[in-house]
TrEMBL record:
Record key words, sorted: Cell projection, Cilium, Coiled coil, Cytoplasm, Cytoskeleton, Flagellum
Transmembrane segments: none
KW Coiled coil (keyword) present: yes
Species in which this protein is naturally found: Saguinus oedipus (Cotton-top tamarin)
Name recorded for this polypeptide: RIB43A-like with coiled-coils protein 1
Chain residue ranges for the region called Disordered: 93-121
Subunit structure, interactors included: Microtubule inner protein component of sperm flagellar doublet microtubules.
Keyword flag Cytoplasm: yes
Length: 121
């Protein structure tokens, strides 16, 4: 009798776990896999490129007829990315310099230490 209750509780817990996992999957699909976010296209439809909006109209800003169009892979936040790249480069350079200085200090300290006396056997 006791084992039946335990089995029922385990089955109920497993069903609840499965339900929560299915809910998480559905929430992910609803939030992250929307059609408007995706850039999927059909390989079998060569005219699909011309069916969508012009690239400059697909963005929120419009700069007028004399401006260049946005390209699909153009980096619209180029200045921020350049600053981040320069910051990362400076950080890496400073770290390399510190490592070189530390290696030099370690080498100098190793050179100044007297060698251990050789044991006579």
């Amino acid at each position: 009798m006791h084992y039946d209750v335990v089995v029922q509780m385990l089955e109920k817990e497993e069903a609840e776990r499965t339900r929560r996992l299915a809910k998480k999957f559905q929430d992910f699909r609803d939030q992250k896999q929307q059609l408007k976010i995706g850039r999927e296209f059909s390989l079998w439809d060569p005219d699909q490129v011309w069916k969508g909006l012009p690239t400059y109209l697909s963005y929120k800003t419009y700069h007028g007829p004399s401006s260049l169009q946005y390209f699909s892979e153009e980096d619209l936040d180029w200045a921020t990315h350049l600053r981040m790249q320069q910051t990362q480069f400076r950080y890496d350079l400073e770290r390399q310099q510190q490592e070189q200085q530390q290696a030099k200090v370690d080498e100098d300290c190793a050179g100044k230490q007297p060698s251990p006396p050789e044991s006579e056997t």
